[in-house]
Amino acid sequence: MNHLKMTPTTLFKCLADETRLRCMVLLHKEGKLCVCELTHALDMLQPKISRHLAQLRQCNLLLDSREGQWVYYQINPALPVWVFDILDVTAKELGGEHKQLQDCARLQTMAGRPEMKGCCN
Predict the structure, then answer these.
(1) pLDDT tens digits, residue range 18-54?
(2) Pairing, β 62-67 against β 70-75
(3) Which residue, 11, 39, 62, 102, has most beta carbons within 10 Å?
(4) Residue 104: which of 16, 27, 41, 38 has the closest Cα?
């Protein structure tokens, strides 16, 4: 697989916003989520989440795909390995923080999720 060019400066600029970081951590744990799941988990309005997801896509951190009525986002698998290492450590460090625990709890209890997965295991 070809790896994207990514510098640490670019990565950290893209993740410098708390909302974008929370989205990335949830996506790192879940693999793939739709906008409605991220909106519910982060307890934010859809336009705000969509704006942040678009920024992450522009940074080449995320890929999106349409499946029926759902638009799913996932972390770009072509990112360099070191980016995934940073996400591993970041997810582990944030895992016990209040906001991250709330995000995971809201996602787990979301009614009508398009694909029910075991969040934040």
Answers:
(1) 999 999 999 999 999 999 999 999 999 999 999 999 9
(2) antiparallel
(3) 62
(4) 41
CATH code matching the domain that covers 8-75+90-108, chosen among 1.10.10.10, 3.40.225.10, 3.10.20.310, 3.10.490.10: 1.10.10.10
- The residue type found at 60 is N
Torsion angle, alpha carbons of 20, 24, 30, 35, to 10: 30
Residue with structure tokens 């920024």? 55
Tell me the pTM: 0.87
- What are the extents of the domains in the chain? 8-75+90-108
Of the candidates 87, 66, 67, the one whose C-alpha atom is nearest the C-alpha of residue 75 is 87
